[in-house]
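Quick one:
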Amino acid sequence: MPDNSLPDEIVSEILSPALKVPDEKFSDTSDVSPFTEYAESPSAYLLVCKSWLRVATPLLYSVVIIRSKAQAKALGRALSDNKELGQWVRHLRVEGGFGSPMLAILKAAPNITDLYLSLEIFASDNTVGLCNGLSLIQPQRLILKDAEWRRTRNKMVSQLVDALAAAIPKWQRLSVFRCGDIGSLNIVRGEIVAALAAAKKLQEITVNCLDDALHDAYPLFQDCPLQSIQVLEAVEPRTLKRVEWDAQPPSLKKFIHFKRTDDKELAPDSHVQSLPDPSLTFQFSSMPMSSEQPEVQDKIWSRILYFLLAIPPPPPVPGAEQRKKRSPRLPFLLVCKMFNRLGLAHYYTHVALDDHALHFSLVLSKNPSLGQHVRTIRGGGTLSAAYAYGSDDDSDDDAEDDSNVKFMSQLTALNEIYGCYSDISTKISLNLEDPLSWDAFVAATQSSGPTLTEISIPIMSHHRASPMVFSPLDRLRSLAWTCRADFSAYIPEQVPPKALSKLIQLRILTAHASFLQVLSLMELPSLRHVLAKDSKPELWAFLRVHGIKLSELDMRYVRVDTLKEPVLDVCPNLRSLTLCAHDTFTPNNMLTMEHLLSGSNVAVSLEKLKFKVELPSQKHEESAWSHVIDGLDSTRFPQLRQVQFTSCRWPKKERDIPKSYWVRWSEMLQKKGIHLADTEGREWRSRLK
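Output:
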């Protein structure tokens, strides 16, 4: 049987990206360790097969990160049992003291070249093993991490500082030193700096800022055979002026290396297409495809222009300054008359009216056939202003509404209408200042009703609106309703029960009570996802009708006293339930299991439960939530796999883990096969004990 296994060298190249720790991450001296992650351990690669175990073991042990006593103990035992493992250790990062196992680790790893030590050690820790083992290694690079603000002073730290000062003269190969703030280190841990300066071996020093390099690093170590002082932070021109960089002696300037902020090249926007250099000229003996029939040329060039022009414009970034600039697609229309003729329809496939409403309205008035090519409209408020600007009487609201209606009536194949939004994933419109007029919305449903699949734009309120406006929307799949239109005068006579038959996703952001009454009288067979901004009585009437169809429910700004019925009783087939409140539930209205599921009922489908609430701040709140966590029994929630709190913050340091109720709740749930996740969906991984 032939051997189809890959050579070890190729397997090593494949596994290296997954197992390699970047040096900038290993040497990071920021206040929060970059290794405070909650992902699968890289050691899982070693369990795939014997070949991967053989190749990946040296890669895994080449960089060792120790963040807890249990890790140090396990590593010390592994290195003691297998002497070969310690020979592969080259980089060692120790983020604490971790007791006697550190001596066993340093004794078994004589080939360490890069040593990272943290001086942020608490009195409950133990540095004896680390202190005794420093003399057993010969590192080439030393990286020290100290607290940025409050530097710890206790017996354990003093022992480590003294041990470092004693070991540095014996480290014959030490030539590289990195510390975030050498000036502060010299003041608080002066013994270490004095030992480094007296050894006179340093060739390279890395500091955070230029001030550290000029005023601390160079004066302290100028007697060393320095070759470079690296500055991590980019230096601003005003900083160079303040330190009088140009006046510094050349003998000093040649050592210090940094990057200026004004030398950075700004990366182009990902959505901006790079255009050819206009200075380049190309000579063609004839036009491409000139020998082909005009119909063939048009089809080919139209297809090419489709990929260049029919691209949705990027949505505006919330809070970012929006610079007015010419569209990167526009130059393609200016190449020649044929490109303009064939590309115009593609160019206006996706229209953003934020700043170009007047321009588009003029183009559409001259070329009405373009209306059938428009597929998406973003922004609606500026449309009214554009038509009012072009009218004779700016104060004539009726004329303005007529212009809106005329405009929307010309768009006969729209797929989406949405406003300026900040949540790109959900397209929830937040621009409520200048919504689309009601008559324009009605015109859009009449002209593009059979093709519309999404509407998520604010709409002006209307005192007497007819539910028949929803009748033409045969293909609408997503509706974000931000409108206070009153339908009560036409209920139930004019409610079309078969309307919105394809609607899957409904977001009720702002609505009159009659809107939910209208939806309660419709069949809505495809409805699966509902987001409701508050829990009015009309919402419960709506859920009693359609709740059995829902697989996802998101209730915003809910209060416990408005939960008239257990949510999972009304919506028994939910796979995801989200409850959101402005603040944590009040002491008199704490959430209980009875608000979610009553009696002995079973949530047969629920897979994810999400709470958007504030962090519990008092004991009784923590206790109340503990009862909820404890009540999530696998017998009543057989499919539940994740509980997410947006206020959850996992502890970053070992000493904070025992104090964290998030960790306690996570361990309670893990015994039931359920994971607790933080705001980013990261689940807690239990540490070695």
